[in-house]
Amino acid sequence: MQASNVSVYSGSWRYPSSAHDFLDLRYYQRIARVLEEGTFDLMFFDDRLAMPSIYNASPADAVRYGARPVKLDLTAVLGAAAAATSHLGLGATYSTTYYPPFHVARTFATLDHLSGGRAAWNVVTSVNDSEARNFGVDQHLGHDERYERAEEFIDVVTRLWDSWEDDALVMDRESGVFADPGKVHELDHHGKYFHVQGPLTVPRPPQGRLPIIQAGQSGRGQQFAARWADLIFTADPSQSVAAEHYRSQKELVTAEGRSADAVRMLPMAYAIVGETETIAREKENIFRDELVHPMASLTLLSELTNHDFSGYSLDDEITDELINSVSGIRGLVQGVKKHLGGGKMTLRTLANHRATLLQGPRFVGTGAQIADQMQDWFETYSCDGFVLAATHFPGAFEDFVRLVVPELRRRGLLRSHYTGSTLRENLGLARPASSFTAPVSSDVRP
Q1: Does the annotation flag 218 for ligand binding?
Q2: Which of 41, 121, 144, 204 has the smallest number of CB atoms closer than 10 Å to its CB?
Q3: 55 annotated to bind ligand
Q4: Where is the Luciferase-like domain (predicted)?
Q5: Whole-number Å distance between alpha carbons of 239 and 363
Q6: What is the CATH number for 107?
Q7: What is the mean pLDDT of each run of 10 residues along the chain (446 residues)?
Q8: Please, are residues 75 and 107 in contact by the beta-carbon 8 Å criterion?
Q9: pTM: predicted TM-score of the whole model, two decimal places
Q10: Contacts of 28 (CB under 8 A, 6+ apart)
Q11: How many domains does the chain have?
């Protein structure tokens, strides 16, 4: 999800049936209710802390073509979704580079309490100089330093969540004791990046530690995910690539002393559903060829790579010289070539991969055909589930719930009702003990 004018697919706002009331809380509540009807695990929001403005050193094209210029604050959005649902998980992206740990710990602990244990945190290190300049910093931190900072950040946040023991609240009216001070702990943390006294001003969350989502694709990012993540969000371009990523990431998880089953690998996927295959293919053609403006694609590529492509033509070839001169583009190029094959590649092809339907697997067809494709990925150990991206709101999810969900349920691949009371329980993840009261678990880090 995006709290925005578009989904991950940047042409979604142009589809004829797309809703345009994205500045109204009822928009997000409608989508949340649809997802809960389909017994989805959670509603998970991407976020950025700047308008795309690397291209031509200006946000003008992002604004002109609707290339994700709107990003609402997720606290209010998820609060609205929590009020409209009873079981659906609520995930939000918060940066370890531009927010302090205490603020993030308090925000998510509050959301977890007020939603009855349904919050999740997507950990990002942020991506570009536009975000830096919005927070009074001239230049974005380097890749490895961002992850070093994130390691300390997440350690502080999880210990803040633990700073109240589960039974710290007494609330004895007769004696006048509200809470046991011996079970509320200061951190007294003094690290390289942060100094945090603690304790947190919110009692321990219902889930103990909220599920952590992470999407690092680099070697350093994968190592970080192996140590901390419960849900790993991927964008592998094909099933064979996804299967190899699944195998290698699970090995990294076990090398960290955790059970491979304690982590879920979830590729982003589009599902284009039709009452017939012909209808689905016609819709696919519209989404693939007609709705994303080329300049929107180039604007988003500039944002992703932190490089201004305004001096290039869309038909320029991606050369080794370009790859060597643009930080962060090598992995993207390699991923697209795995998807499309080797040979020459133009900037248009690379940009379209970022903004259109090429970013992850695309399942197209009737409900039964899409269920076939998803079942094959799952049963061949290419994933543990999917992050379903929307081609348009709310219709993409409505079509999926109406046509695909019954088929998945019929095959025993999807629940018919929620059985857990918290998101961790619905994900099948153990609740970790507090780091102040128990040793580190072998499968879930506190």
Answers
A1: yes
A2: 144
A3: no
A4: 23-380
A5: 12
A6: 3.20.20.30
A7: 90 93 96 98 94 92 92 95 98 93 98 98 85 81 83 97 97 97 97 97 98 85 92 88 94 95 94 97 89 85 85 86 77 69 78 65 95 97 95 95 98 97 96 79 40
A8: yes
A9: 0.91
A10: 3, 77, 80, 81
A11: 1
